[in-house]
Design goal:
The longest helix is centred in the N-terminal third of the chain and has 26 residues. The protein has one domain. It is built from two helices and two strands. Strands 1-2 form a two-stranded antiparallel sheet. It is elongated and about 50 Å long.
């Protein structure tokens, strides 16, 4: 009897969590009007530094797109995609 492989489920759960986290974080930063480049980076205000603000928002949006593709390709582990 073969043991169940938990890796596909772990992969899909982590990718879904990361994608959802980036989506919520991006919407929050747009509503607040300031964003951080990372956990320890400086804060960029939409009014004072719009270029860095929107580049950070765009990078997080791209992260959501990448997470969606990773989830879609991860479904092939389960023979669904």
């Amino acid at each position: 009897m073969n043991a169940a492989n938990a890796f596909p489920y772990f992969w899909l759960a982590m990718v879904a969590f990361i994608g959802l986290f980036h989506c919520v974080w991006t919407v929050h930063d747009i509503n607040v009007g300031s964003t951080k480049l990372g956990w320890f980076g400086g804060r960029f205000e939409r009014v004072e530094e719009p270029f860095y603000f929107w580049m950070t928002i765009a990078a997080r949006g791209f992260g959501v797109v990448v997470a969606c593709f990773m989830f879609w390709f991860g479904l092939s582990f389960l023979k669904w995609g």
